[in-house]
UniProtKB/TrEMBL annotation:
PANTHER family: O-ANTIGEN TRANSPORTER-RELATED (PTHR30250:SF11), PST FAMILY PREDICTED COLANIC ACID TRANSPORTER (PTHR30250). InterPro entries: Poly_Biosynth_Transport, Polysacc_synth. Its main location: membrane. GO terms for cellular component: plasma membrane. The chain crosses the membrane at residues 12-34, 46-67, 79-101, 107-126, 138-162, 168-186, 207-224, 253-271, 283-303, 324-344, 364-388, 431-450. It comes from Listeria booriae. Pfam families: Polysacc_synt. This is Oligosaccharide flippase family protein. It comes from the Bacteria.
């Protein structure tokens, strides 16, 4: 199968399941803003974000090692069993730490739910990576769709009919993740891969050498994505964090697409051991960047009226925080694309270096700007952090020279950044000005696509003529 077609097929299959669960989360935002106050939503978000950062720490990021070493054709049974042993130990330690969890102010009212949800998500992360590495993408997608349905029904029951607030939000997520985990476990027959005898110390050492640098990398990536919410909560309170959380849900449409593509892209890149100077690598980046430039512009055009329709009146003003967050997600997506190059070469320590510098910039600017200009400062800090990370990765793997159609690419980036500044500070943006930004970007991207597909057709024609001459 053609490499582009195979990547497209994998993206489509993964997208069916992932789009279901991720899009459902987005569609539930109006529901949450109706049944949860800004402070309740902010509290629930902080708890879920805390779980997301604890997962790589308590599991030693072993799930990433499972995916990488299964793709390397190592013994699936040894890889999976070794990872399961790590998770069994991690779960035991977490249960023993229950008294400590009770003493954390943020968790005092939710420690039981929090701990259960954390442990379920540990196993869910491992099972997802194993199923994806095994190539069972249809099961992966079906389980995601089922999870979406459970999440929807559970939220309606716990929030609308029982009015359980933050507890209901957590119960709904727990039920959805539990169902997804069980479907993956039994659907992929993962129980056949586990054996205490298959635990391999030498393999564990290799997997940890790969995965351990991903722990601080995950933490730093999390710092750039959500540390602003903790800083906002500290300086401005949980209600401000609730507003920021809702604002971040709109760019999550873009990050949802990026996440789906990254899962398929990592299968192609690692499976074929692609180098960053491979024509397929650069060609995919060109098409990927075109899609994301246009998608970012499309969301910017509708963000103001969309927010007024989608959110309750208490959240209408959040649209002004969205443009900078959109650019941040765009840069984050570009950074994730390049991350595959480090994974192929197993150079996770170098990956850590880029995330470290980006997170320092992010936190430093957040501490400086949030007390000064409020919620908008968090958006700017996030953008700056991802910009630094992306540029460092571009330099480190020498990808600047690999970008096709450089002039059009950088013009598009400049137009989007300028437009985001205009939208964030204009108050009531002019549609004619918006249209000029959009026209400029669409002209740039159309020119890139015409040149790209023209070159592609030309090379295909030459190849066919060569075969005829033979």
């Amino acid at each position: 199968m053609n490499r582009y077609k195979k990547l497209g097929w994998n993206t489509f299959i993964i997208g069916i399941g992932s789009m279901g669960s991720k899009f459902m989360i987005f569609l539930l935002v109006p529901f949450y803003t109706f049944y949860l106050s800004p402070s309740e939503y902010g509290q629930a978000d902080i708890l879920m974000m805390t779980i997301s950062i604890l997962i790589p720490i308590v599991t030693l990021s072993i799930a990433d090692g499972v995916f990488r070493y299964t793709m390397d054709k190592a013994s699936k049974k040894q890889v999976f069993s070794t990872a399961c042993m790590i998770l069994l130990i991690a779960g035991t330690v977490l249960i023993l730490l229950t008294p400590l969890l009770r003493s954390v102010p943020m968790l005092q009212n939710y420690y039981g739910l929090f701990l259960t949800l954390l442990i379920v998500q540990l196993w869910n992360t491992l099972f997802q990576q194993q199923v994806r590495a095994n190539g069972k993408l249809i099961l992966y997608s079906v389980s995601g769709l089922l999870m979406s349905g459970v999440l929807l029904v559970a939220n309606v029951i716990f929030l609308k009919y029982y009015d359980m607030g933050v507890d209901g939000y957590l119960y709904a997520n727990l039920l959805a993740f539990a169902v997804n985990t069980l479907v993956l476990f039994f659907g992929a027959k993962l129980y056949k891969l586990f054996s205490f005898r298959a635990v391999n110390k030498m393999l564990l050492r290799k997997m940890l050498i790969y995965s351990l640098p991903l722990i601080p990398n995950a933490i730093l990536w999390w710092v750039m994505q959500v540390s602003d919410r903790y800083i906002l909560t500290f300086f401005l309170g949980v209600a401000a964090n609730g507003l920021y959380t809702v604002a971040a849900k709109i760019p999550s449409l873009l990050s949802m697409l990026s996440s789906i593509f990254f899962q398929a892209w990592s299968i192609s890149a690692i499976g074929e051991k692609l180098k960053q100077n491979d024509s397929f690598f650069t060609g995919v980046f060109t098409l990927f960047s075109c899609l994301f430039f246009v998608a970012t512009e499309g969301i910017m055009l509708i963000v103001q009226p969309f927010s007024a329709i989608l959110f309750s009146s208490a959240y209408h003003g959040v649209w002004q925080y969205v443009p900078f967050l959109l650019i941040a997600v765009l840069l984050s997506s570009f950074s994730s694309f390049l991350e595959v190059s480090y994974m192929v070469e197993k150079k996770t320590k170098q990956l850590l270096f880029t995330s470290l510098k980006g997170s320092v910039i992010n936190v430093g600017l957040a501490l400086l700007l949030i007390p000064t200009i409020g919620i908008l400062g968090a958006s700017i800090a996030t953008l700056a952090g991802f910009l630094v990370t992306w540029l460092l990765r571009m330099k480190q793997i020498q990808f600047f020279n690999q970008i096709e159609f450089k002039k059009m690419f950088w013009m598009s980036m400049g137009l989007l950044i300028t437009q985001s500044v205009y939208l964030s500070f204009a108050g009531n943006p002019n549609w004619w000005v918006q249209g000029m930004f959009a026209l400029g970007l669409f002209v740039c991207q159309s020119a890139i696509l015409v040149k790209k597909f023209g070159a592609f057709r030309g090379s295909k024609k030459v190849s066919q003529e060569g075969m005829v001459n033979r």
